[in-house]
From TrEMBL:
The protein's name in its UniProt record: GntR family transcriptional regulator
GO biological process: negative regulation of DNA-templated transcription
HTH gntR-type domain segment(s): 6-74
UniProt keyword list: DNA-binding, Transcription, Transcription regulation
Gene Ontology molecular function, alphabetical: DNA binding; DNA-binding transcription factor activity
Organism annotation: Thermocrispum agreste
Superkingdom of origin organism: Bacteria
Length: 246
């Protein structure tokens, strides 16, 4: 089945969203007018209005009648909308990965079982993700041996303290034989352990979001298990839900 092309308003809202998240427009900065954006992107003003509507609903911009559209002030939390694997890949655009534990081969029966492996051997790494020098996420990743072997010598993951704008799924997409096609996700509320609280700068037992993601390639084979803990004071998670066209 051929995927439908992305709608013009969605492309525009994505472009504006990335500009805002990368800091091109500071808080309370007026965005270009509908006419300016329509001319620049060769779309109708109705398309621009639809894109603005999406950004308003996400809390990224606010519209003031007679004055224009402005970037909404934010309280320092990291805000990003996730609705596709591409959105997860885009984390590299405005955050940094700081390695805490380099990618190494080890035995982990539970992780191997979740990855549906016939062996107990996996590769594991852990890292913090930072936005504007503020850590907001602590992640541990487990990889099947064939994937781990391809990534083990990459400078982004091989040394403690390494800093890059990489994502593990981006590295898998680049170096594996088949690209990532989908992700299975579960979200729960948990209390911060001593280890997690130390890395995220929060208090022990403080409520956190735990997000488990299993990434699968185009043949449905698991290629990465990631378990992340997010600090709610520095992170906001939003997902857009659409009705099926069927």
């Amino acid at each position: 089945m051929t995927a439908r092309p992305e709608a013009a308003y969605a492309r525009l809202s994505r472009a504006l969203r990335e500009d805002i998240l990368r800091g091109r427009y500071d808080g309370d900065t007026r965005l270009p007018t509908e006419a300016e954006l329509a001319a620049k992107h060769k779309v109708s003003r109705q398309t621009v209005r639809r894109a603005f509507h999406d950004l308003v609903s996400e809390g990224l911009v606010r519209r003031i009648p007679g004055r224009g559209t402005y970037v909404a002030k934010r309280s320092g939390e990291y805000l990003r909308q996730f609705g596709s694997v591409e959105d997860l890949l885009a984390l590299s655009e405005d955050t940094e990965l700081v390695v805490l534990s380099p990618l190494r081969r080890l035995v982990d029966v539970e992780a191997a079982g979740r990855l549906r492996l016939s062996t107990d051997a996996v590769y594991r790494t852990s890292f913090r993700r930072v936005h504007q020098d503020e850590p907001f996420c602590l992640t541990t990743v487990w990889l099947p041996p064939d994937i781990g072997e391809r990534l083990a010598d990459l400078p982004e993951l091989r040394e403690t303290g390494a800093v890059s704008d990489a994502t593990v799924i981006g590295l898998i997409d680049k170096h594996a034989t088949r690209p990532i096609a989908e992700a299975e996700q579960s979200i729960t509320a948990v209390a911060a352990s001593d280890t997690v609280s130390e890395q995220l700068g929060c208090s022990p037992n403080e409520p956190l979001l735990r997000v488990d993601r299993m990434y699968l390639d185009t043949e449905g084979v698991p290629v990465e298990l990631a378990v992340s803990y997010f600090h709610p004071e520095h992170y906001s998670y939003r997902v857009r839900l659409r009705r099926s066209s069927a």
